[in-house]
Amino acid sequence: MDIRTINALSYEDFVAYLGNVVEKCPIITAAVWSRRPFANLAALEAAINEFIEALPESGKEGILRCHPDLAGRDLQSGTLTTESREEQGQAGLDALEATEVSRMARLNSEYKERFGFPFVICARMNNKATILRQLLERLGNERAEERARAVDEVKKIGHLRLRALVLTDAVNKL
Q: Is the torsion defined by CA of 82, 85, 86, 87 positive or negative?
């Protein structure tokens, strides 16, 4: 769908189509709808990111808490959102050996206990080895530093999800 079509969507259709750009946070999409028309995909993405940045720290943590554990219970039971299932699969997290699943579960638990929200990383831009390494490294961060890092990862995820849903300007001109 091109940006002109996105701009013409009703509120309900806009939220239905773009509502999972930020995992399980359609309220963000709902909030930026009123900022239409967007000049291009970059302007839409900027509006979403500005909304996220304007949130208090507790709101940012709320967004992070909407994310599933990587290679966690939701992946194993098939209850991930379509986007998360594809992203985790692309990173190889759906094909872990039993020892890797156990290690990931332990590290996810440690991370959530330390920070109060799940570990968030853009799975599409990583593989299982990088994800495990980042999880271990980021366990050593301070809470504020880690919250900022995780929010940056949410933005990366959103960027890729938007690019999958909205035709870029270059494609529109072909």
A: positive
Q: Which of 60, 67, 128, 147 is catalytic?
A: 67
pLDDT tens for each residue of 124-150: 999 999 999 999 999 999 999 999 999
Q: In angstroms, rounded to a whole number, what is the distance separating the alpha carbons of residues 80 and 85? A: 6
Q: What is the CATH number of domain 69-146?
A: 1.10.3330.10
pTM: 0.94
144: Cβ–Cβ under 8 A, 6 or more apart, which residues?
Answer: 57
Residue 67 annotated as catalytic: yes
CATH 1.10.3330.10 fits 3-62+162-172, yes or no: yes
> What is the per-residue pLDDT across 111-122, written as a single tens digit (0 to 9) for each?
999 999 999 999
